[in-house]
Predict the 3D structure of the following.
Amino acid sequence: MAHVSLKDVTFAYPNGFVAIDHINIEIEKGENVAIVGQNGAGKTTTVKMCNGLLRPTKGDVKIGDMNTKDYTTAQVSRKVGYVFQNPDDQIFHSSVYDEVVFGPKMMKLANEKVEKQVDYALKITGMDVFKNENPYNLPLSTRKFITIAAIIAMDTEVMIFDEPTAGQDLEGNRRLSAILKELHHQGKTVITISHDMEFVVSNFERVIVMANKKVVTSGPPKKIFWDFPALEEAMLKQPYISQLCNSLNLGEGIIHLEEAVKAIKDRS
Amino acid sequence: MGIVIEFKDVSYSYPLTKEPSIKNLNCKLEKGKFYGVIGKNGSGKTTLCTLIRGFAPSFYQGVLEGQVLIEGKPTVDHGPGELSLKIGYVFQNPFNQISGVKETVFEEVAFGLENFGVPVDEIERRVIEVMELTKISHIAEKNPFELSGGQQQRVALASIIVLKPDILVIDEPTSQLDPEGTESVFEIIDALKREKKTIILVEHKIDLIAEYADDVMVLDNGEMIRFGPKQAILSDMSLLEHGIQLPQMAILGNELVKQGVKLDYIPITEKQAKEVIGRTLRKESV
């Protein structure tokens, strides 16, 4: 059974605006997937349905055998953690520690367990050094890591990151990669929305492409970033390395720098 | 070309901070050039922007040493409205930009022109033109706060472009935009450059800086560690050690050279890479 499944899901906002139009997605336990697509394609609406913040107008969203229709958002969010696109929609405490400890405390875990999970979350996000700071004295890119820590501290089985790469520098991206790797290693199911194709290529085993309220296709990056009709429909470009290999006719399927180096060496 | 912005021994510290956010900065920026400002988060990029616009120290207070000259006159000697006519400033967070007093995108974009006392028919003409350029015509009647982050970034940019300032300071305008939207913002900035505007752009998307900017300024811990034409700077691999991302094509080019492939120069854009690696593959390399 899929860990996260959306079956024939449609979502319309109360004013009648349809944001998601009959989509099907299945994500297995322990999978590490990226969702890509234009602004307004429906990515955020999709993931908000996965943690119960939004309910489908039609169709079913299930986490394991739990249909989100039959449970409260609080119940669903114990299984699915969602890191908001804008950290300021999420942060409401006056210290980093208080922000991160809030989730596990609300889950009424034993004190010892709360401490352990909070320490772990602060450590792997690098936020331990800011433990006593006010989040609003820190830059936006750091506040994003605070919100990531807050979700990791809840130790949910599914974690969703909405555009964590926005505004990150080289070190921030490296840190995100390390976090994703660690969560994958722990067997977490992780869903990440990103506009950074270079980041997507090097961090995910599967990519779901969305366009115009629908899922266009999904598959490994190697396939997706050479699927020109799908890229065109979603108004996406190949990663720079693939663009170059395409224009030099170095063979299809190249997405990594090392592969490009090898292909060029072989030909020169 | 004339110098429009000059930093003379500039150091600046925010209130209640021990270490300056900008240290001993000396440089001259020429009219009509497009400058890309890069560096790690916290390296002083946004502070540099606020110094040009005069927000530091006029709004943020703090201690300014040395002088920031705009067309030869120190920012601190400008009247409050004077710099806003010369310099358009697009904030990193569109929330800080959008006025909050206007109910539609159209009115929001028109707001600055209204304050400048521009005649109504000219306001309408200019707003319609800029909304088309920035691709927000279809959301003209929407409330700015109902928009997505990416759309808000476009509205913020439009509300500044419409004022036609000679200098544009733009702080990470694409952080929440999809790749297509990001390209279109760079195309808009490129069009402004052709109108001889001076552009200072803070941006992490280094591959686009490599394609569009003229010169690059690299900040590290408040200090300017590189300044000049982009080609040499963006192919300097030692910058990676300062936590500064370099273009994919420059990293590829360096790796190829390291592994014994002959290249006439290190490319920084896809177009250059296609040209220079293509030459090597056709054995035309010199």
In short: The first strand of chain B starts at residue 3 and ends at 13. The CA atoms of residues 39 and 219 of chain B lie 5 Å apart.
